[in-house]
Amino acid sequence: AVCLLLQLPVVQKFALQKALDRIESSIDGRLEVDAIDVQPFDAARLEGVRIIDLNPLQFEDSKDTLFSAEKVYASFDLRSIIGGQGFHLGKVSLENASMNLVLEHGEYKDNLSRIFHLKPKGKVPGPKEIFSIRRLSAKNLHFHMIHPDSGLEYKGSGMDWNELDVDGDIEGHAMRFADGIMSFAADHIALKEKSGYAIEHVSGHGRVGRGETLLEDLHLKDALSDIHLRTYRMGYENTKAFGRFINAVALDADIAQSTLNPATLTAIVGLRPMDGIVLDIERGIMSGPVSGFSVSGLEFTETTSGIHALLNGTMRGLPDIENTDMNVKLHLDN
Fold first, then answer.
1. Where do runs of H (alpha helix) occur along the chain?
2. What is the model's pTM?
3. Which of 39, 70, 154, 270 has the most CB atoms lying inside 10 A of its own CB?
4. Beta-carbon contacts of residue 244 (< 8 Å; ≥ 6 apart)
5. Contact between 115 and 27 (Cβ < 8 Å)
């Protein structure tokens, strides 16, 4: 009888609304849903979903909406929702979703962490699981990140890390948000930033949160480069560091067989163009921020000249090539 009762649309809609109310009461924000349509077999369609920031940072063109989606389709585990165990979702599809990340001062360094009470780096959050998603599809996703008072001037080349605008599509699975950490597996991601730089394909799996992004088996392909990394780690004090990406985000990469056109780095971080150079990389290790990193065992062939090389050393001062200090050992053979 209980199982039959839980299948009634009116009961499922009531339980979903109570769960949404429970989420709203636990955040520093307002959760708005224009309409809930319960469908057969533990599925629902939510229209006009918005998370509103109750205390947004005030600056020119500031917005109070953290997240919005025109439509959200989801299958769900009603028992976990009723039991207050978080949202355990099956297939989730987002249409015309948008996220607005604002980097701030204070205990919480961005609006997402502040709204959801995600603990700063070094403070261990509780074990509460907010949600899990078995499979995710997002079409026409827009992501906006702004650092309104970074104090850094955009040099006019590459992406402006003070204000990113990215549109794209995402296909993934095995997503889980708990302990302040998001874990996931990306099957296919395609992105385009307002600068014009586009990524045709990204795949891999990893986790993000509490001062670290760790990606494994990462594959990134754009119009000029095809990059494979066994592991890729970004270490940072908080998300605000991305407003100073070149200097404030420490990178560690274990590079597998890849093709790298330096124009890709020009598009991402503003590295001065090096026309006519394409590297076929066999292997290598990179460590440190873009502005000052070390490489070890970087074995590659420059495709135009056919020169094969093994590189070890450090570079300091990028992206200003003219003032970059290089301390390298380079073994060449034809």
1. 2-6, 9-25, 78-82, 111-116, 245-248, 263-269
2. 0.84
3. 270
4. 150, 152, 161
5. yes
